[in-house]
Amino acid sequence: MKQRCSNPNIRGAHRYSGRGITVCTEWADSFEKFRDWAMGHGYVEGKELDRIDNDLGYSPDNCRWVTKLENLDNRSKYLPLDLEVWLHEHARQLDYTPYEVIKQALESYLGVSRTDRAGPS
Description:
By secondary structure, the chain is mainly α. It folds into 2 domains: 67 residues, no CATH class; 39 residues. It has a two-stranded antiparallel sheet with strand order 1-2. Helix 5 packs across helix 6. The chain is globular.
């Protein structure tokens, strides 16, 4: 979170520091304050930190703990809306992430099997 918002050299910096996304002073200055907030607001192993409004920074009133799929639902959309809706509905039916659905479709199209990706044994 802090690296995303303060390091212009990291991958994806244009989506965070480049857009002015920041970490509130309370969290930036104290891991303990962030940890205490996290533990009191739904953090459990496997959940991801999500900004409710993607145009605002990381702060107690704009963050929550969500599953990976919920986090993907809240990201910026790059596909046409009808394809995005179909992809997410299909992913939920299969209990996959949308990226897993796309990967599976591409592998099927390209004729890549699981054994082809396994590498040396």
